Amino acid sequence: MRARVIFYVLTVGIATVLVTGVAAAGSIGAVAYKQPSDRHDWMRYVNVRFQYAICYPQDLFVPQGEPANSDGQRFLSNKDSAELAVYGGNNALDQTLSERLSDTANRLADSSGKVTYKVQKANWFVLSGQSGQAIFYAKTLFSHDQFKSFELTYDRSAAAIYNPLVARVSSCFTDLA
C-alpha cells in the first residue's frame, strides 16, 4: 500500500510539471506542452524579473530574446507580420489601472483605429480593437506596484489563424508573484 501511495504522489507530481510547464525556480524557462486537441506546439516563457509567465505557439512565433533590462520578450511570427510582445514594468509614474488602460488603448488604436472591446477588473484589464488593417489584443495585470502586459497584433487577413489563439494566450498569462 505504501509503495502505491509513493508511486501515485510521484506520478501526479511529474504529470503536473509536464502539463503546466513549470520552469525551475529562479530561471527563465520555456517548457513545451501540448493539449491533445491542439494543433500547435506550445511553449511557456517565464520572466524572472517581473515574475510572470505566458504561453505561445512555437510553430508560429519565434522568441527574439530578452533585452538587457530583462523586462520581457518579443515573439515574431515566422509566417507573417504578427507579433506577441510581453513585458513588465514598475509603476514609476504611480498610474492607476484605469490610466494605464486609457494609455494602452490610445497607443494601440492611435488616431485612426478604435477599441471594440474592453473590460477592467480590480487588478487587470483586457482590450481589443483595430487600427488600419491591424487587429490588436492586450491584457495587463497589476500587482505589487508592477504592470505585467502582453499585446498580440496581427493583420486582419490573418484573423483566421490568430483569433483562435487569443483565449489560450490570455488564459495562460499569469502573475507568479
Notable traits:
single chain; 177 residues; Protein Transport Mog1p, Chain A; seven-stranded antiparallel sheet; four-stranded antiparallel sheet; 3 helices; 26% helix; globular
Explain what this protein looks like in three dimensions.
It is a single chain. The relative contact order is 0.15. This protein has three helices and eleven strands. The chain starts with a helix and ends with a strand. With 177 residues, the chain is of the alpha+beta class. The chain has a single domain, classed as Protein Transport Mog1p, Chain A. The strands form two sheets. The protein has a seven-stranded antiparallel β-sheet, with helices on both faces. The chain has a four-stranded antiparallel β-sheet with strand order 1-2-3-11. Mean pLDDT is 85; it is low at 1-29 and 33-37. 26% of the residues lie in helices and 40% in strands.
Distance separating the two termini:
38 Å
Class inferred from helices and paired strands: alpha+beta
Number of domains as seen in the coordinates:
1
Averaged pLDDT: 85
Please give the order of strands in the largest beta sheet.
4-5-6-10-9-8-7
What's the tally of helices? 3
Predict the CATH topology. Answer: Protein Transport Mog1p, Chain A
Rg, Cα atoms, Å: 18 Å
Tell me about the largest β-sheet.
7 strands, antiparallel
Low-confidence stretches: 1-29, 33-37
Residue share in β-strands: 35-45%
**What CATH architecture do you see?**
3-Layer(aba) Sandwich
Instruction: Report the principal-axis shape.
Output: globular
Helices and strands, in order, run as HEEEEEEHEEEEHE
- What's the level 1 CATH class? Alpha Beta
Per CATH, the superfamily is: Mog1/PsbP, alpha/beta/alpha sandwich
Q: How much helicity do the residues have?
A: 25-40%
Count of strand segments = 11
